[in-house]
Amino acid sequence: MALKFYNSLTRQKDVFTPLNEGRVSMYVCGPTVYGDSHLGHAKSYISFDIIYRYLKYLGYSVTYIQNITDVGHLTDDADEGEDKLQVAAKKERIHPMSLAEHYTASYFEDMDRLNCLRPDISPRASGHIPEQIALVQKLMDNGHAYEVNGSVYFDVASHKAYGKLSGRNLEDMRSGTRVDVKSEKRSPADFALWKKAEPNHIMQWDSPWGKGYPGWHLECSVMSMKYLGETIDIHGGGLENKFPHHECEIAQSEAANGKEFVRYWLHNNMVTVDGTKMGKSLNNFILLKQVFSGEHERLSRAYDPLAVRMLVLNSHYRSPLDFSDSALTAAQSGLDRITECVKSLRKAMEKADDGEADAKVLKQLEGFQHRFRKAMDDDINTSVALSVIYEMEKMTSTLLQKGRPNKKTLAAVNDMFNCLGGDVLGIVLKEYPRESGINQDLLDYLMGLVIEQRAKAREEKDWAKADEIRDKMAAFGVTFKDTPAGTDYEIK
Ligand SMILES: [Zn+2]
């Protein structure tokens, strides 16, 4: 088996072979921190979190970089418009860096709840201004960039490979761009590396070309090179970033270094609402915090953050995901089923007898793992991988209901849930928080006494007593489950 990724650059599934054996360098375009994250962000960052986790599962040592954009991302792709952070900061009447601080913290809070592992480094654009100026200077020196009135542009015509990722050619781009007579660029397809700051622009830095700020594309090239080297294995991002953002990243990096910038380009698809892209600019987004609290007109209830994860895993990362409350409800009930199963499994493990692990169960687990890997190797097919977890859940429930599996057998099942469902998919937790403030051990002990009393009454054919215990407990929401391994209880 070999891991294959659909590479946007070659437009086919390529076998993944890292540049350096055993090591993977991975860069994913991070958030522009001017608002809370919505479901669209969840799709993107869960998708790459799964890729990161799976590479680690395969034994690679992975360095994962995800930048924080806190300067230079303009409201308009054509190098016009205002800085997104500055616009939002003005509205809230705070400094743009204070806004960035707030929304960076908010982003990590949401991602932690979605059980996304933290990247190894989360560098900020504003913390890498000298490096960005140095790259612009390098491009000026080798004839790929030119300065006009304090701004510096990349000369697209000087770089023959421009368009190789998006498949657009220069002529199409020229004719497709709206004609702006006031543009100071040599060609409308050229893009800004450095922008001259107007006096009222808050975030500005000194440069050889006067006061200004970096173009958005520049930061990713610079931070990728700084932390991962001139050629990296994987660069990921949303499909909407393929052009112009990633195309520009390639042009400026390869023109500067004369080396291939990225070997595998991975793009995730978007979340849609009624068929339209969910996005901040379209104002049809649902914030993750609203999903977690249930406070949105499109939501019927509050959802577990891991239900969002389930929803994302249900579709392929390269397919669009159409949001609906019913899809989220289905994801939640799927998650509940798996969680309940794992909890019962762990409870049964505590009481199980010693003995050798059941060879038949071990063989089944091997089969699950094989099919899980096959699905994930095929360009991270998470919906098939998830179906394997559901089959494990079915097998485990049958095992617990029909037999008396011993400790070693159950531990093997639990290990497999922890590995595939936990380490890779991130939907099974090593430990679940207690549901109430009640000490679980105490509750188990007291319920054990009740169960014993009930069994004694039945043994003595004291049906009135047995019924009384059952009815009393039912009034507290407690039901008894009689299994070959003994009686268990459930609290609703
Ligand atoms: Zn980027």
Can you walk me through this structure?
There is one protein chain. With 492 residues, the protein is α/β, with parallel strands linked by helices. It folds into 3 domains: 4-268, HUPs (Rossmann fold, 3-Layer(aba) Sandwich); 288-424, Up-down Bundle (Four Helix Bundle (Hemerythrin (Met), subunit A)); 440-491, no CATH class. Helices cover 47% and strands 14% of the residues. It has helices spanning 39-57, 84-92, 96-113, 129-141, 170-176, 216-228, 242-257, 288-293, 305-314, 325-351, 359-377, 382-402, 407-424, 440-459, 463-475; strands at residues 4-7, 12-15, 23-28, 61-66, 145-148, 151-154, 191-196, 212-214, 232-238, 262-268, 271-273, 276-277, 321-323, 478-483, 486-491. A 4-stranded parallel beta sheet has the order 4-3-9-10, sandwiched between helices. A hairpin with a 4-residue loop joins strand 1 and strand 2. Helix 1 (39-57) crosses helix 9 (305-314), helix 11 (359-377) packs parallel to helix 13 (407-424) and helix 14 packs antiparallel against helix 15. The model has no long low-confidence stretch (mean pLDDT 93). Zinc ion is lined by residues 29, 220, 237, 245. Zinc ion (ZN) binds next to loops. A motif ('KMSKS' region) lies at residues 277-281. Its EC number is 6.1.1.16. It is found in: Cytoplasm. It is an enzyme of class 6 (ligase). Its cofactor is Zn(2+).
| Structural class estimated from helices and strands | alpha/beta
- Low-pLDDT runs: none
Order of helices and strands: EEEHEHHHEEHEEHEHEEEHHEHHHHHHEE
Instruction: Specify the number of helices.
Output: 15
CATH superfamily assignment of the largest domain?
A: HUPs
Mean pLDDT: 93
Largest sheet: 4 strands, parallel
User: CATH topology of the largest domain, what is it called?
Assistant: Rossmann fold
- Name every ligand kind in the structure: zinc ion
CATH class descriptor of the largest domain: Alpha Beta
List the domain count as a whole number: 3
Gyration radius from CA atoms, angstroms: 28 Å
Give the DSSP E fraction (strand runs of 2 or more residues). 5-15%
Distance between the termini: 44 Å
CATH architecture identity of the largest domain: 3-Layer(aba) Sandwich
Family: Belongs to the class-I aminoacyl-tRNA synthetase family.
Subunit structure: Monomer.
InterPro entries: Cys-tRNA-ligase, Cys-tRNA-synt_Ia_DALR, Cys-tRNA/MSH_ligase, CysS_C, Rossmann-like_a/b/a_fold, tRNA-synt_1_cat_dom, tRNAsynth_Ia_anticodon-bd
Cofactor: Zn(2+)
